Fold these 2 entries.
Entry 1:
Amino acid sequence: MTEFLQQLINGLADGSVLALIALGYTMVYGILRFINFAHGDVFMLGAFAGYYLAPLVANDLHVKLPSIGGALLVFVIVMTLCAGIGIFIERLAYRPLRKRPKLTVLITAIGVSLFLEYTGQFVFGAAPKKFPELLPAQPLPSIAGLSLNTNQLVILGTTLLLLGALRFIVMNTRMGRAMRAVSYNPEAAALMGVNTDVVISFTFGLGSALAAAAGLLYSMTYPSIDPLMGIFPGLKAFVAAVLGGIGNLPGAALGGFIIGITETLVSGYLSSTYRDAIAFAVLILILLFKPSGLLGKKVVEKV
Amino acid sequence: MSFRHAKTTLLGVLVLCALASAATSHLNPYAYWLNVAYSIGINIILAVSLNLINGHTGQFSLGHAGFMAVGAYTAAIITNHVGTVSPLVANLLFPGALLAGGLAAALAGLLVGLPTLRLRGDYLAIVTLGFGEIIRVVLQNMDAVGGSRGYSVTHFWTNTFWAFGLAAVTIYVIGALVNSTYGRGFIAVHDDEIAAEAMGINTTKYKVTAFVVGAFFAGIAGGLFAHSTLYLTPTGFGFMQSIAFVVMVILGGMGNTAGVVLAAILLTLLPEGLRFLAAVHIPGLAAERPLAWIADTRMIIYSLLLILLMLARPQGLFGAKGLRARK
């Protein structure tokens, strides 16, 4: 039982990272109806931004690292930076294709993803780098034989905080209402005076900021970072988004946690070498019975 | 494309391939350019078979490398049981092994095709990608074929005849299938699935057929690949590889067989060409290899070209369905 709970806790930490990435996928899908394949690479850029920023913050700004204040500063700068990158990518690569078939945009997104990965290998180097310590990870007193450390709590806490913030933005702000309107019907929203271009840029920025935060949180647990690190978390997060019903925000978060926990449980109890296949197996099983995902609405195609 | 002379053309091409094979048989089979030539044949098979699924039938498969892996491993397991044999016996056994690989891949195609009937578009894409990844992970865990350490193939049996002959057969069979009365169904599914269904076309059957036939040829290509590289690793069949095949189909123009063949040739030669450029010495320049930077940036160039192509010519270099429209 203790072991099961322990696995569950580890799974929650992994799942929250996936949930944060999945939200970006699902938001973009909800509004533009296309898979932003490059999203996993923004996650990677977030990790690298943190890697290069941490020494700057520590040495030039004289903020102590690892510390709570320093970590907060790194998070804010990296998230802002990656939001900018997300908006920039959308503006340059996707906006000119807005009216084109979805497949064209999908291939472009794959192109952007490859571009970021290979440019990353060229600029950062292909060899893995050690991510600096942002927060001192301390083991907490064990409760009922469970070992916990502060990093796991920080990851879970930050994720819940960001999920809450996202929910507030989407449900309670003007921009959020505009996002929902565009996702419901872009043409009608535009006719009602919603500036769809701004809304789409904002969505990309928001999603990329979440991915960047996920990149930092992920690197705090797995401190070896490399330019291809975004591929698998990106794929699994996309699977999580589809699992929860793509376009549905709570669904994406739920999917992320389900995949994270299942993965940890399977690698803990069955075989760790099958880990990478779990997400897809779960996806296929669920889609067999519910093709629109767990929380997704069934879309009736009209002729 | 008129298929009236297709059979004659196919026979002619096969004879040519046999002649070319005889002419190159005395060469070192490990020669670099010969292997590039084999890759061209293999990639043509993969691109043309994927074109049946993604182009003609309008589905979106991102798992073609998985089918290729199934064929490659199946064929290699079979031929690894064979000792040293004369070239004649090898040329008799090889097609059997390739066929077995193709059938195994077709079975995998059936497994993927059946559950994906209910899925469309992006959902289908991600599920086929998932199947491809599952195949890779399963291979990584199969100790009998070396797991993630990789699997050595004993026989170098791929030659010009099999690589290009089978490429020609693939083009012929898929062309004949799509151009037949039966094959109109694929195009109907592509053009408008709902309308096709309303006209009484069994869209389910056509989609599964596309997957099974496409996977069959991908499996054959896998067998050819196994017997020319002689070393298989599960990671070599990841989704990046599947994406490379999708890019060939997109670049050539969805459903445009001639375009896809050209794209497969072009995209096989492009990395080799860039590698060659990176090593070239230009007389009169101070640097030993002035274009060496290409070696480090060739994948960046590739991805940029892909983005620019989609921005400038989304219908592919040679236009979607260009040749078929010109009946």
Entry 2:
Amino acid sequence: MSENALEQLAIELVAGAMHAGATAADVVVREADEFSTVLRLGKIESLKEAASKALGLRVFSGTRSATSFSSDFSGASLARLVDRTLAMARATSEDPASGLPAAEVLGRHAGEMELFSPEVAELSTDDRIQCARRAEEAALATDPRIRNSEGAWFEASWGTKAYANSLGFAGSYLTSYCAVSVAPIAQNGGMQRDYWYSVARRPSALEDPVAVGRKAAERALRKLGARKISTCRVPVVFDPETARSLLGHVFEAVRGDAIYRSASFLAGKLGQRVAGENVTIWDDGIRPCGFGSRPFDDEGVPACITPVIEQGTLSNYLLNCYTARKLNLRTTGNASRGVAGPPVVGPKNFYLAAGPHPPGEILRSVRSGFFVTELIGFGVNIVTGDYSRGAAGMWIENGELAFPVEEVTIAGNLAEMLNHIEAIASDLEFRAALASPTLLIGGLTLAGT
Amino acid sequence: MRQGNHFFSEHYGLREADLERYLAAALSEGGDYADLYFEYTTTSSILLDESLVKSATEGISMGCGVRVLSGEQTGYAYTDDLTPEKILKAARIAARIASGPARVFTVGLTTVECPNNLYSVPVPSTERDLTEKLDLVRRGDQAARAYDPRIRQVRVSYGDQVRHVLIAGSDGRVVTDLQPLVRLGVFTIAQENSNLQSGSSGGGGRVGLEFFQGENSPESFAREAARQAIVQLTAQEAPAGEMEVVLGPGWPGILLHEAVGHGLEADFNRKGISAFSGRIGQRVASELCTVVDDGTVPGRRGSLNVDDEGAPTERTVLIEDGILRGYLQDRLSALVMKSTRTGNGRRESYEHIPLPRMTNTCMLAGSEDSQEIIRSVRRGLYAVYFGGGQVDITNGKFVFSAAEAYLIEDGKVTAPVKGATLIGDGPTVLTRVTAVGNDLRLDPGIGTCGKDGQSVPVGVGIPTVKVSRLTVGGTAPRSAQSFQ
């Protein structure tokens, strides 16, 4: 279906719901094409291609609401969907905070965001396969200790999202995405796997697959001979990948739903110092080509830039319309909605602002510490901030990377960690909706032998 | 529940001749094997928060996935539109993986009966009235709040699905199944002054709403979630470093899922990238340990009559008396490794390529009394409830996160400690198992496993087990707690 046809479908379904007796309604429709291929040791392992579509309907009956979803767009099926959803809504609770946003906050950010490029769909299957092949070949050619691979991937998707509500807002936009990644295995007695990747809104913005392959190989090679170390309390340098996961926890802690439920260590801290003065965190919805950019959120609120932590002070929670009402605040345009279920709070481009130091300078400043390049597991409690995760990386001795480390954990408390970010590097890169430069955090417990 | 047999013919007019036509299109460029996976899934979910039913959702997802195998290569395409044109188009796209003359598809199709019926569900949950489900979540909310005045926040979630599947392969086999699944979860927050702590619990399985009674009642899950949050109010810093660890029965079986289960999935082993690759017949655990993956336990969340490639599920011995015996196989890996399928080919939905996955992964009971096991520990950790875990397949390092744990001092369970991640090495951790209890328990039925971006429901089970050395990732140096 065309972009217009999807928007029209959303408008008609909203009208159908209102006609059937809803007091308010909104609809999100998605349509997408996806392609993925996996190569391994130069041979194609799989080719996958498909087109899909789905819609999500939300209806209100006063302050009661319910949602439903379907991939069947036939008229009869949608009429049934409306009736069933209304019946469900009437069985839920009155909730004074429920409802659509106020009509005056609806709209679309006018600037061009470059979220879509036709080049993604136009790229031939051979070119897509070739991209993954070059990445894997480069990884395998890096060193004789790289002889095996879990595979190399090329993935692409492009599609349309449309939204309409009963306040008269309707809009749609196109997005595209492509990625190349490779996971080589380094062997030298033991085996170590690592990976690297590049993602972009258009193929021409992808990094050279050869560089991606080499970096993946170097990451796997440096893990060879990793050992466990004794339990100690040390400064820890987080590389941008592991630092991004920390930003993910901060995002979880400033989400409006965690705040109104007091289920966050940052609840009740608005306007207070929660981090060192060197820490500024933004949530930017309009960044060109950003993976978290969009002209309007999934409730029709225009994209904007929200300061979250400014020089250490918590300046905003991130909110959709519901959580904003619960907290007597204004929505920050963070409504995010899959087709199933009501809107939740999702990140725009949520990032920690770059600092002045080259990452090498930060490593050199550490006399004895840990450079963490991988974190695994789920040992993070947003309610208390307690943090404990499995880790691997490199031991730092006199400012140099001394030897690889594995089978250790890093533990601390996120509230304290935010206050002990001792240095922030200049290497901020946007590889996902969340991003962080290299960070040095003091005084974490590393558990080993 | 066997009424799945005619679902697609009744609702979508799907006939045997159609299946033959689609399979012929899938093999139109050669290929060794093709299959079709038809799915029609209805789901519903409810969220109760602040004692209000804040969301009720239902939906339908349906489609057909077409797979073509050519040597070790897979072509895959799917459609969410079950019209013949769209399925044929998907079949022709999937066919492109092969490059040869069309294979003439001549085998007649035969509908094969599932040997098992593991789901005794009189009425599928999706056909039960919404008010019955609302009653379950409200009862959970009331019981959690009544448990202790310090319980300040309660969230109760309910979710169910009923999945009709029809799998037709170019080997002539047609299999249908109707797979129910329900889940109830309770999350609580307790507050004492400025100290806030959380707890969670829940249960479910391939069962109907009648499951939620007795020890599986909403009240029972709610009290458990509330109890955990209250216990955590007095938790001290968790220890940091290697120590003796006793795992309680049930949920802590996630150890097996992470430490050995993933590493024994055949795809990683045929590629030689698992820490367990090439180790069949070798000792990977103490002789006290026998580990099975059992997809045939009636009503369990990880159980299935047939896997998502149409093969009957099985009870597969992975480790027997400490010796590695077998891998978890799907069709492709079994073919490449010249092994037999074990009924572990699973996929999240029609949009996904099947992979070797776990079902219910359990360690069999030993002979020791759990209290004796605890008494045998001078200084250690007793961990009874876990959150998620993760593993690096290639180097074997795995983690699992204790949400409820206590210190053991001089053979007695003493102070509760804060949540902490435990980390170990998969191929060696079970060699350090020095005691196995006689109290095997399965988890309550809320586990979900992720791999390659695909989520599938799974189960775990373990008796009380003592591991002589495991790294505990807390913050308290051992000296502060007189750990030697």
